[in-house]
Specification:
alpha/beta; five-stranded parallel beta sheet; about 45% helix; about 15% strand; binds 6-O-phosphono-alpha-D-glucopyranose
Length: about 375
């Protein structure tokens, strides 16, 4: 009913709008004023976490994209190798697991069969399993050693939005916590990022306030067949998620690529007026990557692409090559997905509407896939 949708036309719009709160709620009570984390729910003892020599993330769909981003954070802040695997592929290849492996199972619903089977397999091999889940008392957290709940509230639209952002927050918390417990050389950076996380909900809010041009752009592209997405570093999984949203909602051919792979194939797809969304990393910090992606934008534009550039406020280098420019607030490099994903959600939702598609219940898809 209209009341359930809180005045929005679709649950998806409501859930996109709820993201600042969902992010804040997921941080609530987990960070203290001094920049330390208290994750009491993670009932895996500190001495066990200190012995962990490998992290393996398993998930499906949008949750898998959260896992891909988590890998960058976990490896950077903990120096522990991290693999991310589609749950449906995981147990069939006889993965290497033992008591020193920490498996992180990410699932909004807590009922996805492939993810459940993957974690059962991991526990049988002696690995510890930490679930990141949005649904209290669901099967995946019940069968895990510990659970860190995302506090997104119920997500009704089939295409995941606010659950994804809170999965990212939970992944950052796990990465930072592991770093804190293991006392890595990144202690100062960890404390600084914990403080930055506290202001991230406001940054998401600011993105939401500037979405009208994105909606307008989406409407103008309703007749297109293909949209490509490019990103690097944590922007690469953001590109994958942007493409997934467009497939799910707009039923368009959409693909995400690592920008560095452009010359190994994808550039052959570029033709006149093909929309290409490029997620640009911050010019600060890893500026080498920034400069490389700016040349990618030049390369595709020279071949006729219509460039839709998602870039940080104040990043002037991209301006001459952006046919459309979407600004996101300045964030630490690893946290950028929290702001950069939001315009891509809005873009896909508006395109679906413009194409006359059912936004909350896309054809052929289910909110939770409880069969293999
Ligand atoms: C389905 C949904 C996706 C979701 C995926 C994993 O395919 O349509 O939106 O990302 O399942 O779901 P989970 O509940 O495990 O996060």
């Amino acid at each position: 009913s209209a009341a359930e949708k809180g005045g929005y036309d679709y649950f998806m719009l409501k859930e996109i709008a709820e993201q600042p709160k969902a992010v804040a709620d997921t941080l609530l009570g987990r960070i203290d004023g001094a920049g330390s984390l208290t994750l009491d729910e993670v009932r895996i003892p500190a001495n066990v976490l200190r012995e962990v020599d490998k992290v393996v993330i398993v998930a499906c769909g949008t949750a898998f994209h959260a896992g891909l981003i988590a890998k960058y954070a976990i490896e950077h802040w903990t120096r522990v190798p991290c693999e991310v695997e589609l749950a449906s592929e995981f147990r069939y290849r006889d993965p290497i697991l033992d008591q020193q492996t920490l498996v992180v199972a990410i699932s909004q619903s807590g009922e996805t069969m492939d993810t459940l089977m993957a974690l059962r397999h991991a526990r049988e091999q002696g690995a510890k399993v930490l679930a990141i889940c949005n649904t209290n008392g669901s099967t995946i957290p019940r069968e895990s050693d510990a659970v860190l709940y995302t506090h997104a509230g119920p997500e009704v639209a089939v295409a995941s939005t606010k659950a994804f952002l809170t999965q990212l927050v939970a992944c950052y918390l796990v990465a930072l916590y592991l770093g804190q417990v293991r006392g890595t050389k990144y202690a100062d950076e960890i404390r600084a990022v914990v403080r930055d996380l506290a202001s991230i909900s406001g940054a998401v809010e600011r993105v939401l306030e500037t979405m009208e041009p994105v909606r307008e752009l989406a409407r103008s592209l309703a007749g297109k067949n293909t949209v490509l997405f490019l990103g690097r570093h944590v922007g690469y999984p953001v590109a994958l998620e942007g493409a997934l949203k467009l497939k799910e909602l707009a039923y368009m051919h959409a693909e995400g690529f690592a920008a560095g792979e452009l010359k190994h194939g994808p550039i052959a797809l570029i033709e006149d007026d093909l929309p290409v969304v490029v997620v640009v990393p911050s010019p600060r910090g890893r500026s080498v990557l920034h400069d490389k992606i700016v040349s990618n934008i030049q390369e595709i534009r020279a071949r006729g692409a219509r460039t839709i550039v998602v870039a940080e406020e104040g990043d002037d280098a991209v301006v001459p090559y952006a046919d459309h420019l979407i600004r996101v607030p300045v964030t630490p490099t690893l946290l950028q997905p929290l702001v950069a994903t939001v315009p891509l959600q809005v873009f896909a939702c508006e395109l679906a509407t413009a194409r006359g598609n059912e936004v909350d219940q896309p054809r052929n898809l289910a909110k939770s896939v409880t069969v293999e």
